[in-house]
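> example.struct
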């Protein structure tokens, strides 16, 4: 570990650097934990957005239920070794899901 103060990234705003420099070690660790979780969340949201933008429109049925937006796609989720279809769409910053039915209706 170096005895010199670290150099902040050049793209970090001055006010953020100043705030961090005034913070306690405990607060800095809290900020680091939060920043890592926030970065993961934003990356996941960006992936979901990209996946929904790249969804194959031909796979979507023409007859959407009344409470499902036309932009919704069908996703498959596995729960307890069973597979189910869910409608999935984005509302602002959130991804919404609604149960559609089992992948194999006879099960």
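> example.seq
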């Amino acid at each position: 570990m170096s005895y010199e103060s670290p150099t902040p990234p050049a793209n970090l705003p001055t006010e953020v650097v100043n705030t961090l420099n005034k913070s306690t070690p405990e607060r800095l660790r809290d900020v680091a934990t939060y920043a890592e979780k926030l970065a993961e969340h934003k990356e996941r949201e960006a992936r979901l957005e990209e996946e929904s933008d790249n969804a194959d429109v031909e796979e979507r049925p023409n007859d959407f239920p009344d409470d499902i937006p036309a932009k919704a796609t069908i996703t498959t989720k596995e729960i307890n070794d069973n597979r189910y279809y869910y409608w999935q769409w984005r509302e602002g910053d959130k991804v919404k899901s609604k149960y559609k039915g089992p992948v194999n209706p006879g099960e």
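> remarks
The CA atoms of residues 29 and 79 lie 36 Å apart.
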